[in-house]
Amino acid sequence: MGLKTPAEYIESLRDGRITYWDGERIDDITKHPRFKVPIAMTAKDYEYDSPEYGESRRYKTEDGGYGHRIFQVPRSEKDLADRVEMMGHSAISTLTTGVFMALMSVKDQVAEVNPQYAENIERMYRYCRDHDLRAAEVITDPKGDRKRRAHEQDDPDLYLRIVARNKEGIVVRGAKLHITAASLVHELVVMPTKGMRQDETDYAVSFSIPVNTKGVKIINRSFAPAELNSFDYPASSHHSMPEGFVVFDDVFVPWDRVFLAGEVQLASRLAQSLGLWERTGGVVEAARISELFVGLAQLVTEMQGKDGDPVAQNSIAELITYAEMIRMGLEYACTHYEKTPSGMVFPNTLAINAAKYYYAANFHQTVRYLHDLGGGLVLTLPLEADLRNEESGKYIRKYLHTKPGVDVETRMRVYNMIRDLTADAYGGWQFVVALQAGGGLPAQRLMMNRTYNMKRAKERALAAAGALPAKGH
User: Where are the domains of the chain?
Assistant: First the structure.
């Protein structure tokens, strides 16, 4: 028990988990080049003695020990601010462990239906915290024909379902898609993908199991090759993380690890709880990357001698507006927090959904400004190998010169960052993730419609129009 070291984390992955990548079954992911960068990213968050981030990564638990801050249940505005700060410099494989915040936020409601499930949530949360484990958010089903509900599909396994129950536990079958870092964590925390009706009881299921559980198989895909040059790929070479296609082939789950098994009235609550924390993570990342866009835009503009150009300044102003709207949305969500009945603090639901919607709906348009400022070199810049080559390098240094004080190599690095972030490996992943992580735009619209104070808005509109009925009627 207690906080792990990076070496202990890496050793914990040698547990017989079944993982595939590029047609190959990988028996020890710690020795495979495909997993080198993702494991290094995750292991870095186990550096609790880091002078830069060590203290922000850990907190003192109510038991007197220490846990990673991803497990800290916020009880105040400061707790929430500390959590957001930690999220800003953590690997996504650490952030997915925030699934336990979703479970803890609905624990009270779960207890009203089944107290044992609520106890299971608390126990699993403490177990993972005290053993410094990481978890994946396992939510999205294949879904098959979207016009039909779970039990109406040609294949009943197109939504994860319970296929057997006994006194020891349940047996589940199905698959979950887009599971970030599934092969890199210790626990797979399964949540319902959406609300379920009474005739879909077998599909209303939630639980947590170890990744190496018999019957679990993970098929991986990443936006980046195993090894990339950090000069040419400054983002992708350090930040790639596999997405898992997770198969549950008649997997047994003991009752003490079950959070939901047929109680359809809770399915949508669990699904929505995860959406809030996942969108919070998306907005934290959006605040980081949008500020980066502003810096890159200003640099590329100055390097070209266009700092006084009104068109360039207009584009940079658009990027600043985008960054500031996201930052203010995140700040508002945290300072206007909400509370569960048991005192858990969480970001304002309406504000987080509005900020995530603004980020996602405007992401592609915003990237356009960056591409416009950068020009064609964003895609056609020669590689580092050509720069280092004595013969070709002299031409690159000659013809990429712009003005005194602008180093050609630095200029190339800026362009490479723009390309990698927005038009190459990492950028392709980000284009889809900006829209889809935490649910697509319709999911945010739905939550905004549900949480906005429409009654007050209508009353104010009627009052402004002089159409409110006289008091007493």
Answer: 268-458
Distance CA 143, CA 156 (A): 10
39: which 2 tokens? Answer: 């494991």
pLDDT at 250 over 70: yes
Q: Burial letters for 392-413: b for 16+ Cβ neighbours within 10 Å, e otherwise?
A: ebeebeeebeeeeebebeebbb
CATH match of 268-458 with 1.20.140.10: yes
The lowest-confidence range among 169-173, 238-242, 299-303 is: 238-242
